[in-house]
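Module 6 notes. Inverse folding takes a fixed backbone as the condition and produces residue identities as the prediction. Think of it as a translation problem where the source language is geometry and the target language is the twenty amino acids. Below is one complete input and output pair. Work through it position by position during the lab.
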């Protein structure tokens, strides 16, 4: 089975949070990365989601995240 990395933008919103919760439970997802402007809520951080703080106007500064 191929392990995947999931990347979620808008992860602090209502839909984004639910996506993170569901992806964190998937057995074939190796890592869940959340592109965020502000810190993730504590209930999401405990799921093992990798918080990637980013300025969406300068995505080129973090090519390894995207």
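Target side of the pair, the amino acids:
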């Amino acid at each position: 089975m191929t392990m995947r990395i999931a990347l979620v933008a808008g992860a602090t919103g209502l839909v984004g949070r639910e996506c993170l919760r569901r992806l964190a439970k998937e057995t074939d997802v190796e890592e869940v990365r959340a592109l965020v402007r502000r810190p993730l809520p504590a209930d999401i951080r405990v799921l093992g989601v990798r918080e990637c703080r980013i300025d969406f106007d300068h995505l080129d500064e973090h090519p390894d995240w995207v």
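Reference fact for the lab report: The mean pLDDT is 87.
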